[in-house]
Amino acid sequence: MIAHVRGTVTALGLTSAVLEVGGVGLELQCTPGTLATLRHGTTATLPTSMVVREDSLTLFGFLDDDEKSCFELVQTASGVGPKLAQAILAVLGPDDLRIAVAGEDVKTLCKVPGIGQKGAQRIILELKDRIGAPVGRGAAVHVPVADAWRSQVVEGLTGLGWSAKEAEKAVDVVSADAGPTPDIGALLRAALQTLRKA
């Protein structure tokens, strides 16, 4: 399998980035937090996890090995596939996930679109003894962005499973402090933090 990818960032979308490696553009599905760290035209190295299905090969890219490990571990819980695992990491960082599972915090896990109370309880039950303790990574810095990105951010949030109404509300909150330099990844991440606190 492909353990990591190093290449030039040639495209950034709402849910993915394209890295050119040896003349080939590889599309990596990433969380908003990971996308916020990438810049078009720069070289990046991302740990990756490949998900093989009958009809597709999907490459997921991560900020670091810790995020990748959590992505792979959470999929061992019943009913959690790669898309839901990615949504979990988009809403909760690896340490937040560990704290929620260790503290049996069903309410926090239910903030992830697609996870109900029973699903959260199942994840806690199946991962509690295997997820480990928080590693103490610092909180990400959120860069405010301009209102011009509003529709794209709403689309990204609805793509992760929130309703259009919830997405609009979250964007309203982060738009209040928007600056002149648009950074869609940072705005999306900030909106996710707002939804997480709601």
UniProtKB/TrEMBL annotation:
<dbReference type="GO" id="GO:0005737">
    <property type="term" value="C:cytoplasm"/>
</dbReference>
<comment type="similarity">
    <text>Belongs to the RuvA family.</text>
</comment>
<dbReference type="GO" id="GO:0006281">
    <property type="term" value="P:DNA repair"/>
</dbReference>
<feature type="domain" description="Helix-hairpin-helix DNA-binding motif class 1">
    <location>
        <begin position="72"/>
        <end position="91"/>
    </location>
</feature>
<dbReference type="InterPro" id="IPR000085">
    <property type="entry name" value="RuvA"/>
</dbReference>
<feature type="domain" description="Helix-hairpin-helix DNA-binding motif class 1">
    <location>
        <begin position="107"/>
        <end position="126"/>
    </location>
</feature>
<dbReference type="GO" id="GO:0009378">
    <property type="term" value="F:four-way junction helicase activity"/>
</dbReference>
<feature type="region of interest" description="Domain III">
    <location>
        <begin position="146"/>
        <end position="198"/>
    </location>
</feature>
<dbReference type="Pfam" id="PF14520">
    <property type="entry name" value="HHH_5"/>
</dbReference>
<protein>
    <recommendedName>
        <fullName>Holliday junction branch migration complex subunit RuvA</fullName>
    </recommendedName>
</protein>
<dbReference type="InterPro" id="IPR012340">
    <property type="entry name" value="NA-bd_OB-fold"/>
</dbReference>
<dbReference type="GO" id="GO:0000400">
    <property type="term" value="F:four-way junction DNA binding"/>
</dbReference>
<dbReference type="InterPro" id="IPR036267">
    <property type="entry name" value="RuvA_C_sf"/>
</dbReference>
<comment type="function">
    <text>The RuvA-RuvB-RuvC complex processes Holliday junction (HJ) DNA during genetic recombination and DNA repair, while the RuvA-RuvB complex plays an important role in the rescue of blocked DNA replication forks via replication fork reversal (RFR). RuvA specifically binds to HJ cruciform DNA, conferring on it an open structure. The RuvB hexamer acts as an ATP-dependent pump, pulling dsDNA into and through the RuvAB complex. HJ branch migration allows RuvC to scan DNA until it finds its consensus sequence, where it cleaves and resolves the cruciform DNA.</text>
</comment>
<dbReference type="InterPro" id="IPR003583">
    <property type="entry name" value="Hlx-hairpin-Hlx_DNA-bd_motif"/>
</dbReference>
<dbReference type="GO" id="GO:0005524">
    <property type="term" value="F:ATP binding"/>
</dbReference>
<dbReference type="InterPro" id="IPR011114">
    <property type="entry name" value="RuvA_C"/>
</dbReference>
<comment type="subunit">
    <text>Homotetramer. Forms an RuvA(8)-RuvB(12)-Holliday junction (HJ) complex. HJ DNA is sandwiched between 2 RuvA tetramers; dsDNA enters through RuvA and exits via RuvB. An RuvB hexamer assembles on each DNA strand where it exits the tetramer. Each RuvB hexamer is contacted by two RuvA subunits (via domain III) on 2 adjacent RuvB subunits; this complex drives branch migration. In the full resolvosome a probable DNA-RuvA(4)-RuvB(12)-RuvC(2) complex forms which resolves the HJ.</text>
</comment>
<keyword id="KW-0234">DNA repair</keyword>
<dbReference type="GO" id="GO:0009379">
    <property type="term" value="C:Holliday junction helicase complex"/>
</dbReference>
<keyword id="KW-0227">DNA damage</keyword>
<dbReference type="Pfam" id="PF01330">
    <property type="entry name" value="RuvA_N"/>
</dbReference>
<dbReference type="Pfam" id="PF07499">
    <property type="entry name" value="RuvA_C"/>
</dbReference>
<keyword id="KW-0963">Cytoplasm</keyword>
<dbReference type="GO" id="GO:0006310">
    <property type="term" value="P:DNA recombination"/>
</dbReference>
<dbReference type="InterPro" id="IPR010994">
    <property type="entry name" value="RuvA_2-like"/>
</dbReference>
<keyword id="KW-0233">DNA recombination</keyword>
<dbReference type="InterPro" id="IPR013849">
    <property type="entry name" value="DNA_helicase_Holl-junc_RuvA_I"/>
</dbReference>
<keyword id="KW-0238">DNA-binding</keyword>
<dbReference type="GO" id="GO:0048476">
    <property type="term" value="C:Holliday junction resolvase complex"/>
</dbReference>
